[in-house]
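Researcher: Next sequence.
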Amino acid sequence: MDILHRCCAGLDIHKKTVVACVRRIDAAGHAHQEIRTFGTMTCDLLALSDWLAEQGVEHVALESTGAYWKPVFNILEGRFGVMLVNARHIKQVPGRKTDVRDCAWIAQLLQHGLLRASFVPPPPIRELRDLTRPRAQLVAEKATAANRVQKVLEDANIKLASVATDVLGVSGRDMPGALIAGEDDAAKLADKARKRLRNKIPALQTALRGRVTEHHRFQLRLLLGHVTHLEGLIGRLGGRIEAVMAPFAEAVERLTTIPGVEQRAAEVVIAEIGPDMSQFPTAGHLASWAGMCPGNDESAGKRKSGKTTKGSRWLRQILTQAAWAASHTKGTYLAAQYRRLAARRGKKRALVAVGHTLLVILYHLLKDHTTYAELGGDFLERLEPDQLTRHLVKRLEKLGHNVILQPKEDAA
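Model: Next structure:
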């Protein structure tokens, strides 16, 4: 087997220890290895870095073990060629696994060029991820808290959601707030409606007539306070993200020209893959990394499954949301693609397919520094007009019609 690196190191990382193996090939072609164990405190990691440098190591490989790999990667990144690898790709045989064997196995695979590096973006993008991912979690937590508010209102037989679209809107906040304060008069509660909701005051008076106890008031006070707190955190994160996104404003503006991709979706895309597409040779590589393309499971010439692969769940989530938004746009290629696929393959598969198309578009916009050009909702029909004509004629004939096609004369 070819030797790619004559001196390299493999690290097996844990919460409290890092086991390092330096593997070296001498002039006679014999392999030698030295193994040491270090702690994970900053001083220990600096000692590990110095020891690797003394050994003449230039390339280091380590597993992506939870969050424990991050401080090790950050300290070694600027000094060595560090390769982060998926632990699933280098799994040892059960029954022969120890920390020493693990680090030696990683070093051996690295030396022969048998490791595939995971995508690790530069520090500014990693910092942006640390902002967009918690924001997504807080938004989901806020939705959960809003559902709990609705559950308490239903338990008190307050049917506010049957009349108001947004229970946590301005009017929706005022009415539960009055309930918490002890107001029981449905007419006075309904009078707190604002703007267009005032047109529904008679319905609100009926919906707000329930049986609210002190227990319900305590729960509403607790949950609404939690929602307000979450909104404050989301706002602070949003402000920080806006400041950090300043260097990538041009890329975000370019991405928001795509139907279904708004400001927040563009921010998440930049945070997950960055604006530099040189990390991915083709759009297909990016789609595979994101888990937005069919997987391969073939044996004996038979295809067993096309289930999508495991990829970046954060990117997959935002692409699916953007695909759903794009499917509701009018006169766009993405909406036409969704309708065409949903009729044959179902809505969920259609959303994944549209998400894949969005990712391909995002890749080319970022790589070529261009803006989105809309193909139109009738692009697929214009692509093969003869085939569409035959299909429509066949459908009419099945309905019992005799179809005679006559070419339309061009207008003079």
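Model: The chain has a mean pLDDT of 89. The beta strands are 7-13, 17-25, 31-39, 59-63, 81-85, 297-299, 302-305.
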